[in-house]
Amino acid sequence: MRELDVVLLRYLAQDFDGAPDAERAAFDTLLSLQDPDILDLLTGRVIADDADLRHVLKRLHANPRSADL
After folding, report:
1. Alpha-carbon distance 42 to 3, whole Å?
2. Cα separation of 1 and 22, whole Å?
3. Which of 20, 32, 48, 54 has its CA 20 to 30 A from that of 39?
4. Neighbours of 18 (CB within 10 A)
5. How crowded is residue 16: how many other Cβ atoms within 10 Å of its Cβ?
6. Which distant-in-sequence residues (6+ apart) come within 8 Å of 4 by Cβ?
7. Residue 4: in which H helix or E strand, if any?
8. What is the model's pTM?
9. Three-state DSSP state, 45
């Protein structure tokens, strides 16, 4: 999905390099999921069990552009 690419690439460009190792690993985990699963997590239809993944999702939501989802 193009919309997901925009949100995920923005995080990668702006936040990934400065993120702690646990956050980087959680982002890698997020990227390993299928697009529908990522969308469910980003829209709140599914809540991540992993605290680090929830933190990454919060960071993605904090970006004003991710509100487009």
Report:
1. 11
2. 26
3. 20
4. 8
5. 16
6. 35, 38, 39, 42, 69
7. helix 2-11
8. 0.85
9. coil
User: What whole-number distance in Å separates Cα of residue 15 and Cα of residue 37?
Assistant: 22
Q: Apex CA 61: angle with CA 16 and CA 13, to 5°?
A: 25
- Rg for the chain (alpha carbons), in Å? 11
pLDDT tens string 27-60: 999 999 999 999 999 999 999 999 999 999 999 9
Q: How confident is the model at residue 67 (pLDDT cuts 50, 70, 90)?
A: very low
14 against 67, higher pLDDT: 14
Write out the two tokens for 53.
Answer: 């993944």
